[in-house]
């Protein structure tokens, strides 16, 4: 939505067609844009490969935002090998396939922005998110390597690291935690808010604003960084 407000033509990609249609209808068209959507399930890498090729054949992509749902929580000692394979495919392999599809067009134009929405766990692992911490670290290193290779073509690759951000995912995490701990959802959300110096959880548009800035020509000399948008929660530089 923030990118559409800045005049971008948006191509949406997720599983739920009805939700995609709703979002598409809410996108700004103030610069006479054409928005579109495609349906794909990121748990199926072959589906994502096919759709990546289709999208890049039908659109010129200047900005790619990788932002699918995160792996399930739980202690790492209990995680099955399959959970790591699923998360690796969903987050790393699909990112790679999408990047390979859009980079030739970006190179041709001498302009590209690749932004990966990951998690602050790439700086400091979060308790109870074993598989996620592991795969997020891999995605961050994949991204930095990509930044090193693609910078010479006017393409930047950066990571935005959200802290607790009030999306439907956070709502369901808070509901699950409340059920497990016997506290209310509001108490869980208050604990999350309290963990950040800002003393509140973030808003989706605050993460989106960081993505939007990194997408612009103004951010041309910012490449290969991890940018936390977490109200100061991460206890490291
Ligand atoms: N919210 C937070 O507090 C927080 C904190 C740290 C990191 N993050 C990370 O930031 C990213 C976005 O988070 P969010 O809170 O916006 O998550 P969300 O509310 O769960 O939204 C995730 C988006 O990804 C799509 N998606 C999920 N699974 C998919 C799949 N298998 N195939 C295709 N699309 C899929 C969803 O659409 P469909 O359901 O229609 O497919 C939805 O558009 C995630 O990687 C998340 O882990 C979030």
What is the compact description of this entry?
With 237 residues, the chain is α/β, with parallel strands linked by helices. 48% of the residues lie in helices and 13% in strands.
Report on the structure:
This protein has a single domain, classed as NAD(P)-binding Rossmann-like Domain (Rossmann fold, 3-Layer(aba) Sandwich), CATH 3.40.50. It is 48% helix and 13% strand. The chain contains 8 helices and 6 strands. The strands form 2 sheets. It has a 4-stranded parallel β-sheet with strand order 3-4-5-6, sandwiched between helices. α3 runs parallel beside α4, α4 runs parallel beside α5 and α6 packs across α7. The site of NADP nicotinamide-adenine-dinucleotide phosphate has 21 residues, from α6.
Characteristic key phrases:
237 residues, binds NADP nicotinamide-adenine-dinucleotide phosphate, 4-stranded parallel beta sheet, Rossmann fold, globular
């Amino acid at each position: 939505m923030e990118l559409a407000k800045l005049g971008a033509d948006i191509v949406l990609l997720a599983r739920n067609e009805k939700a995609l249609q709703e979002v598409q209808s809410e996108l700004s068209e103030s610069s006479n844009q054409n928005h579109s959507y495609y349906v794909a399930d990121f748990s199926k890498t072959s589906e994502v490969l096919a759709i990546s090729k289709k999208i890049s054949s039908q659109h010129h992509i200047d900005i790619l935002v990788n932002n699918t749902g995160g792996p399930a929580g739980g202690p790492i000692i209990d995680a099955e090998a399959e959970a790591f394979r699923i998360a690796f495919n969903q987050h790393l392999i699909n990112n790679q396939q999408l990047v390979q599809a859009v980079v030739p067009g970006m190179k041709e134009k001498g302009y590209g922005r690749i932004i990966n929405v990951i998690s602050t766990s790439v700086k400091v692992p979060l308790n109870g998110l074993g598989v996620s911490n592991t795969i997020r670290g891999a995605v961050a290193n994949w991204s930095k390597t990509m930044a090193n290779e693609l910078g010479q073509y006017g393409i930047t690759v950066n990571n935005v690291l959200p802290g607790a951000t009030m999306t439907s995912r956070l709502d369901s995490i808070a509901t699950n935690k409340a059920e497990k701990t016997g506290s209310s959802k509001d108490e869980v959300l208050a604990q999350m808010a309290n963990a950040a110096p800002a003393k509140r959880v973030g808003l989706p548009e605050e993460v989106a604003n960081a993505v939007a800035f990194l997408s612009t020509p103004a951010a041309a000399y910012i490449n290969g960084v991890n940018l936390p948008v977490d109200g100061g929660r991460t206890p490291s530089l």
